[in-house]
User: Which sequence fits this backbone?
């Protein structure tokens, strides 16, 4: 059995956290980790900013190429 990296667990929670899809216990868990981990907090801020940007640009008319580029930048498999 391998010890799980708390940052890995946080990364799992992060997408759901940003999409507000987590149950309260998971939100607490994610926030507890984000409060104590600079690395994940940075990543969270980056993801949150990126999402806001994508939402704004997606609501305006965006050239298909740029949109594809942004999605590619997120590097999320299946997104
Ligand atoms: Zn972390």
Assistant:
């Amino acid at each position: 059995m391998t010890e799980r990296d708390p940052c890995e667990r946080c990364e799992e929670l992060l997408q759901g956290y940003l999409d507000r899809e987590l149950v309260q216990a998971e939100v607490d868990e994610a926030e507890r980790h984000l409060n104590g981990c600079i690395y994940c907090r940075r990543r969270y801020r980056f993801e949150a900013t990126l999402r806001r940007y994508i939402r704004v640009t997606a609501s305006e008319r965006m050239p298909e190429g740029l949109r594809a580029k942004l999605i590619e930048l997120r590097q999320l498999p299946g997104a």
